[in-house]
User: Which sequence fits this backbone?
């Protein structure tokens, strides 16, 4: 029964990621954290998240896959690099901090994301506006990386910056998934010991 629930959670979160360009890492992690150790959940979610980010980066390209990738990497390299560094520190915190603090951090970020989405449906959401400069790009990328590395809840922090810069949904989705992709590579490398402890059904879930 638990395996069926896990598959359904992954399936629903993946559909939402396909529709919105984000959500899978955070929703899948938040759901599975109720029934698994957080470090194991982060490892489980990392691999499918990496492939979904790759898939999204390869879709809806205006200039071709390679040219589009280079374009976003060039324009958002500070956001990508700072999120990469933050992800490294975030995974470190996953093992250093008491798990209760990580759960609290994940709950706060998820609650903000959920309430903001609900208020947005009714036209009452107030977007946090920041100056779209290089300093804030590094700051929000770094914070998103730390939170994403520890909890997979990277989206809300990235959106705070990206919504202040553009309303182009495709641009926002491509940029955020570029950061997701780099963060997942870091997580997979740093959580390699977690993969050695997974059983066959968990590999099947991936």
Assistant:
């Amino acid at each position: 029964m638990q395996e069926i629930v896990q598959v359904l959670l992954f399936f629903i979160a993946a559909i939402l990621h396909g529709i919105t360009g984000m959500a899978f890492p955070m929703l899948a992690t938040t759901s599975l954290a109720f029934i698994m150790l957080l470090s194991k959940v982060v490892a489980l979610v990392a691999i499918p998240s990496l492939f979904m980010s790759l898939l999204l980066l390869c879709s809806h390209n205006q200039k071709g896959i390679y040219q589009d990738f280079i374009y976003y990497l060039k324009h958002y390299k500070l956001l990508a690099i700072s999120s990469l560094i933050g992800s490294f520190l975030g995974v470190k915190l996953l093992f250093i901090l008491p798990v209760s603090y990580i759960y609290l951090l994940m709950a706060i970020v998820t609650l903000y994301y959920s309430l903001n989405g609900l208020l947005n449906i009714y036209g009452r959401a107030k977007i946090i506006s920041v100056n779209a400069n290089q300093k804030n790009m590094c700051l929000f990328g770094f914070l998103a990386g730390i939170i994403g590395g520890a909890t997979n809840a990277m989206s809300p922090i990235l959106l705070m910056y990206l919504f202040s810069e553009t309303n182009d949904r495709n641009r926002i989705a491509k940029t955020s998934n570029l950061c997701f992709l780099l963060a997942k590579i870091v997580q997979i490398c740093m959580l390699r010991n977690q993969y050695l402890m997974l059983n066959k059904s968990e590999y099947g879930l991936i």
User: Anything to note?
Assistant: Residues 2-205 form one domain. The first helix runs from residue 2 to 20. The two ends are 17 Å apart (CA to CA). The chain has a mean pLDDT of 84.
